[in-house]
Specification:
Length: 524
């Protein structure tokens, strides 16, 4: 131990007490500070901001997460309705209002945890990010193929990714590290159930669902807000997932299969299509539910909150240059247009800060001037300078001497409002608390029971193979979670570990086409 280390080892707590880089002991590393247990997150969350901003800067220049991606251009066509009702009843967002209204889009699909040259057959959530170039500026709908997530509080995100990424000493990923974190985060049980089933390896990017994951709001002309969830449902191409054996067969000879599948489909004119659906819920706590609607680890039941179609997206043009368009594409959950708004979803509020902060670091402070990121609507700001600025966002006739607002000397002016502002009201203590209705296992059990027999068998085999690499106490915690979700679920995992059953692994197989090998699945 160096003298410097010795001098730094004092203070409050034991040697293994968690601190921040100011040396402050961290008393709560599980919950951001919010107005009430489910209210909005405050900007003075110093520990969270220090933690997430350092996390955002961990990789140069590859994305920290969603490193490997593929993308395409297309168009979104609005239905003018939400289900059978006029969409204006719920939102004043212009891109949805008129039947047949078209908005250009760019979509980036990705794997989440693995690096930029990793195989596309690995078990991993898939990113599904859509940039709408609307007349009111850009709207980014940033999500995954799975409709839920591992955690519900953003302060845990850097730790989660560290646990899923390679060991900092060996540089090898470890199922023991993965399940060490997950077994101490019971809210992840639902996501683990999906991830280790065939849903954890989509056959390709065209034949997978997408979801905004977070809870957002729609706001109408009167300023009334409702909670919404966004879902992309494949149309003509359907949904297909891979078993571990099929993924191994493809990976043996092709680790770029999903990128090429998307590229070749568009080149031959087989344009993939998705329908955008929303679930709508009145704003509020909804005490009649056994979960909190702002909890990202939960699905909203479709029988109570049906999927309502609002439009269709078609991808019809491949990028002209991968780096310029796919690698430099930058998305953020805070990029909303008028009529779309934030909910108090903690993960959404944490992501909204983190995503744009990451882009400013990774691509640069002027990343929004790059053609792939620039809105197709007019831009006029008083922001200036920074690395790689190549133009000034100046309005026609603007006094070039005035780069501030307000001004009476010919500068920019505030825009008039298009409708009444949405002004939710809060009256609660500022606390660090998890939401009251966690129900970490109910939906995981329901999902297990709704899987087809072959999906359950694949799930059990995959979990047994992964958990067999873990310490006994980690295995016991996970089996306990699965048992609370469904007694049969826990029993089968335990029996499979004891018997040594695990998913098939093969190598040296002939190159296979993932579209032919995949298993059909119905939406959930």
């Amino acid at each position: 131990m160096t003298d410097e280390t010795q001098n730094r080892s004092g203070g409050s707590g034991n040697e293994d007490t968690l601190t921040n880089r100011q040396g402050h002991p961290i008393h709560d590393n599980q919950n951001v500070r919010t107005v009430g247990s489910r209210g909005p997150t405050t900007l003075e969350n110093y520990h969270f901001i220090e933690k997430i901003t350092h996390f955002d800067r961990e990789r140069i220049p590859e994305r920290v997460v969603h490193g490997r991606g593929a993308g395409a251009h297309g168009v979104f066509e609005a239905y003018g309705k939400v289900g059978d009702e006029p969409v204006s009843k719920y939102t004043r967002a212009k891109l949805f209002q008129a039947t047949g209204k078209q908005t250009p889009v760019f979509v980036r699909f990705s794997t989440v945890i693995h690096g930029i040259h990793s195989p596309e057959t690995l078990r991993d959530p898939r990113g599904f990010a859509v940039k709408f170039y609307t007349e009111d500026g850009n709207w980014d709908l940033v999500g995954n193929n799975l409709k839920i997530f591992f955690i519900r509080d953003p302060i845990k995100f850097p730790d989660m990714v560290h646990a899923f990424k390679p060991d900092p000493i060996t540089n090898v990923q470890s199922m023991e590290r993965f399940f060490d974190f997950v077994s101490l985060s019971p809210e992840a049980t639902h996501m683990v159930t999906f991830l280790f089933s065939p849903w954890g390896i989509p056959a390709n990017y065209r034949q997978m669902q997408g979801s905004g994951v977070n809870t957002y709001k729609w706001v109408n002309q009167e300023g009334k807000g409702v909670l919404v969830k966004y879902h992309w449902e494949p149309l003509k191409q359907g949904i297909k997932n891979l078993t571990q054996k099929e993924a191994n067969e493809i990976q043996a000879t092709d680790f770029n299969h999903a990128t090429m599948d998307l590229y070749q489909a568009i080149e031959r004119g087989d344009y993939p299509e998705w329908e955008l659906c929303v679930q709508i819920m009145e704003d509020g706590e909804h005490s009649e539910l056994d979960f909190d609607p702002l909890d990202d680890t939960k699905l909203w039941p479709k029988d109570q909150f049906p999927f309502l179609p609002v439009g269709k997206m078609t991808l019809n043009r491949n990028p002209e240059d991968y780096f310029n368009e796919v690698e430099q594409a930058a998305f953020g959950t805070g990029v909303l247009v008028d009529g779309l708004d934030f909910s108090d979803d903690k993960m959404l509020q944490g992501r909204t800060f983190s995503y744009s902060d990451t882009q400013r670091y990774r691509v640069g402070p002027n990343y929004l001037q790059l053609p792939i990121n620039a809105p197709k609507a007019r831009v006029a700001t008083n922001q200036q300078g920074g690395q790689m600025q190549y133009k000034v966002d100046r309005a026609p006739g603007q006094n070039p001497h005035v780069n501030y607002e307000p001004s009476s000397l010919g500068g920019l002016r505030e825009a008039p409002r298009d409708g009444k502002p949405h002004e939710p009201e809060y009256n609660a203590r500022l606390v660090r608390e998890k939401i009251s209705r966690t129900n970490d296992f109910g939906q995981a059990g329901q999902t297990y029971r709704e899987f087809e027999d072959w999906e359950r068998e694949e799930l059990i085999a995959n979990l047994a193979g992964a958990l067999s690499q873990c310490k006994e106490d980690i295995r016991e915690r996970m089996i306990g979670y699965f048992t609370q979700a469904d007694p049969e679920y826990g029993r089968r995992v335990k029996e499979a570990i004891v018997s040594g059953a695990m998913s098939d692994t093969i190598s040296g197989a002939d190159k296979k086409n993932s579209g032919q090998m995949g298993h059909q699945a119905d939406p959930y």
